[in-house]
Prior knowledge:
Layout: H1 4-23, H2 28-33, E1 39-46, E2 50-51, H3 55-65, E3 70-73, E4 80-81, E5 86-93, H4 94-124, E6 131-133, H5 143-152, E7 166-168, H6 170-176, H7 179-192, E8 199-203, H8 206-213, E9 220-224, H9 228-238, E10 243-247, H10 255-259, E11 265-267, H11 270-273, E12 280-284
Parallel strand pairs: 6-11, 7-8, 8-9, 9-10, 10-11
Antiparallel strand pairs: 1-5, 1-12, 2-4, 3-5
Helix pairs in contact: 1-3, 1-4, 3-4, 4-5, 6-7, 8-9
Amino acid sequence: xxxxxxxxxxxxxxxxxxxxxxxxxxxxxxxxxxxxxxxxxxxxxxxxxxxxxxxxxxxxxxxxxxxxxxxxxxxxxxxxxxxxxxxxxxxxxxxxxxxxxxxxxxxxxxxxxxxxxxxxxxxxxxxxxxxxxxxxxxxxxxxxxxxxxxxxxxxxxxxxxxxxxxxxxxxxxxxxxxxxxxxxxxxxxxxxxxxxxxxxxxxxxxxxxxxxxxxxxxxxxxxxxxxxxxxxxxxxxxxxxxxxxxxxxxxxxxxxxxxxxxxxxxxxxxxxxxxxxxxxxxxxx
Length: 285
């Protein structure tokens, strides 16, 4: 993953763009009927059981909109909440609260859905050594908060983007003329450009696993769409030479069986691309 500084910069860009997109030249609904000096309070109300996520993001949004807004937080990121729970109260300028409302809700509803699904996968994996990873199958423009939600749910982040890790997948391998050529070219490129990046290589079968293992300096082998038997065999072949990762349509019904094959990681695009937003609302008090 990228550095904390780079990640925080991504979050600030999401907030700035979200407010720009939603507010434009002004929240005319509020400006028209609510006096500028009016003060108010609102509560973040839970209307569906979930793992709450986005509380710290909401704090940053409110502060961006109006540093004078005050929050009283009752539930922290990662805690399980139920219907009727109040996550926080926000008080201050009524106009400011309404200006921040939609970005806060949109983000928290989605982040809570992702954190909840991730927590479900983590629970299924309990007792194994396998850890759950996200992917780059994220919503364009808000990747940082979606990956943040995976962490809140107890998962781990894969690479953030194309620039912070090398991942040689099937198309790279085929375009480069084979696995060994792709790896050799990558190592030369990294050396020439003074890049210290980890290398993951995708394998489509056991023969490709064996070929990858003939090269030194591989961080992880991605076992793509392997069945259980071949996954177990691949894990035995890999041993302690590098880490292993399973991927490819793995779901709640199959994830435990793949973990029991001994892989170090399982990556799932479903954590971010196949969730339904949780029901939260911001209500005036």
